[in-house]
Amino acid sequence: MTGEALIVLENVNKWFGPLHVLQDVDLSVARGEVVVVIGPSGSGKSTLCRAINRLEPIDSGSITFDGRKLPAEGRALARLRSEVGMVFQSFNLFAHKTILQNVMLGPVKVRGEKPAAARERAMSLLERVGIASQADKFPAQLSGGQQQRVAIARALAMQPKALLFDEPTSALDPEMVGEVLDVMTSLAKDGMTMVVVTHEMGFARHAAHRVVFMADGQLVEQASPAEFFANPKSDRAKDFLSKIL
Ligand code: ADP
Ligand code: MG
């Protein structure tokens, strides 16, 4: 961890109608840091991720990425999106494209890379997530765990400065969770900046530098995993942990 801030949210507020989903959220993520966000369903974790990527506009406050304020639209926004990869619960692969094509598409279409170069890099990313042998198959021919690993390779293909994960293993059969978490753990060890919403407390304990606990749109507490799991301070966090551990 270098300590230099890459993602900074200051006093961020967001409403859905009367619902105050993000309440005065302050969060700073350093380059190379792995922040795991946990909290009950409906607490605003997905909205937080979507706000960082500007998939969701905020009502007040500011979000900066790598020293720049989040652009509202246009080419600057497209560039920002390519710098912040996102991996969702549902893998969102293109069903009618092969695994290799799924990974090459963004680099060629958005980044303007030459197909030959993009193909070579896509293959090495598929290698990295342990799926190179499936390159010519279609998503439906792969297991959920394999598809999610492809989705991670696809996000990496854009050479992002940070990756956001929103419950990346929640849709998977239990026996496939480990293979996806292993890939994420290896990215974390390699110094990728990551914000990970997950219910996988093992991952939080072993891979996170910091755990952030959210409830009702607020960042209720944040601490190192060791400190948070041994000694949660708020009643909300104690209650949450007592239900899931
Ligand atoms: P989490 O990911 O922690 O489960 P979300 O960020 O998805 O929470 O949702 C936070 C709250 O905002 C929930 O009450 C949810 O129902 C509500 N919400 C999320 N998206 C929308 C939307 N597009 N319109 C209205 N309400 C929404
Ligand atoms: Mg969610």
UniProtKB/TrEMBL annotation:
Keywords: Amino-acid transport, ATP-binding, Cell membrane, Membrane, Nucleotide-binding, Transport
Record carries keyword Transport: yes
Enzyme class: translocase
Catalytic activity: a polar amino acid(out) + ATP + H2O = a polar amino acid(in) + ADP + phosphate + H(+)
ATP-binding recorded as keyword: yes
Domain of life: Bacteria
InterPro entries xref list: AAA+_ATPase, ABC_ATPase_HisP-typ, ABC_transporter-like_ATP-bd, ABC_transporter-like_CS, MetN_ABC_transporter-like, P-loop_NTPase
Gene3D superfamilies registered for this protein in UniProt: P-loop containing nucleotide triphosphate hydrolases (3.40.50.300)
Protein name as annotated: ABC-type polar-amino-acid transporter
Species name: Actinoplanes regularis
